[in-house]
Amino acid sequence: MSIELVETEIRKFLSTPESDVICLSGRWGVGKTFAWNRYLRGAQSKGKIALKRYSYVSLFGIDSLAELKYSIFENSVRSSDIGVEPSLETLQSNTVAVAERLGRKGLWFIQQLPRVKNYVGGLGPVWFLSVKETIVCIDDIERPGRNLSVRDVLGLVSTLKEQKKCKVALILNDEALEDEAEFRKYYEKVVDTSLTFAPSPEECARIALSDDTKSRKLLAENCVTLGISNIRLIKKIERSVLGIESMLAQFDEQVLRQTIQSLTLFGWSIYEPSSAPPLDYLKARGAAYFGIAKKAVSEREAAWNALLSVYEFSGTDELDLVLLDGIQNGFFDPSLVQKHASALNDKIKATKLDRSFLDAWEMYHDSFEDNQDEVLDAMYQSFFKAVRYITPVNMSSTVSMFKALGRSEQAAEMIRHYVTSRGENRELFDLRNYPFSSDVTDPDVVQAFQDKYTTFRNAGNATTTLLRMAHSNGWNPEDITTLCTLPVDDYYQIFKSHRGDDLRKIIKVCLQFDVIGNATPDMKEISKRAKDALKRIGQESAINARRVKYYGVEVKGTGPTV
What we know:
mainly alpha; Rossmann fold; six-stranded mixed beta sheet
């Protein structure tokens, strides 16, 4: 049944004074109550509600017929006040109506407020006297208390219609009825109009989300692409989006777009696990997209892969892990969001200048043409351009593909270039602390990363040695042996990672061997390697060329240095 037809019938129900019963059914989460309230407020704003009073009651937790009667009375408000929560003031107004019917004895009932609810068992029928010519919405029909039967509820509905001249709307999840046979037996006798609420993903997005902000528009598009038809879920995801939106205001719009894409997918996976790909599958998506499947793909996984390709979700990154924690915890850590969003922002800016690596992988995924050489050539050429923004997972997967397709030499060349180009990033090569290390599977890549990280550990030991030598103004033979064999890359890393007094002391220790008498060849080698590292630093920029000249290192081709 289309939601246009459902809306038409509900509006007709609200706008006529005749007593009748309407039932709105559908599976959990599709937004039956949300839609009912939306149509109700729409009719109210247009003055299209025929009866003057309205009462909403959920059967969840109501354990007796007397309690249900009292709840209908307690929650009754004027139709013009729909949207305002029932309060002590509205309860007092309702009680006055009862008192007027009871005469002078009614004064006692008013004096019991707000303690009146303690007497529901004995007074339920009395309070129920004032309920007439009212629109009564009874929600969660499938979840009454243990002592309240469906038969009693539908009997009361019949009374409201026949004797109280009320209009009654029933809302239920028909998939969760415990005694469906009993329900259907009385349902046929009581309900006049039966509506099934089964909105499409497009209709759910339109009902749940306004289009007043870019974020909500993006969220709606994502929900439709994934086929989400659960309004409760959409509203939960919306809460996450609104919670993080302001944290991303300073970044490129694509950061917000990718964040909303991930939040939608993760929210679907968490809150609707029977339909969505599981989180572990999503976390492994990067290795599956940028590489070769480790095992046979099941029919379900094949369907997920097809959906995620249309959704343009190629993999989970470190910002995604922060988002995932935020959804599960109910809040986001601003410092972690800023840190990883900033890294993504830099990557996006670089990709805008040159997205050739991603284009090459899209060439691989987007057809079944016999174009192996064309695809591999494009990947190889673009790899060297985009190397600073290629993740270890993508690196491993690319190398594995080149090996599998007969280009092992190029694979080895890419590994060497990656390590050289990213050599200053100690954290990058520490696979132990990389959240996706299990997806870095190529043995040559793993070994290259381990070897490179070992040099950083050596550099750490060398730093300790240099600082100790600076403070003690002395050294031992082991210190000289350590420092004279230390690679220039390590000296470079040490100089780049220090500043201030520590940096000055370290350089002083390294260069002191140029001026001491009887310096051994090993001592002079320390000074030579340190100067080679300083020269490399000076070649990075004009300002660094000026800085290293202070230490006697001349760099040509970087502009004036004096």
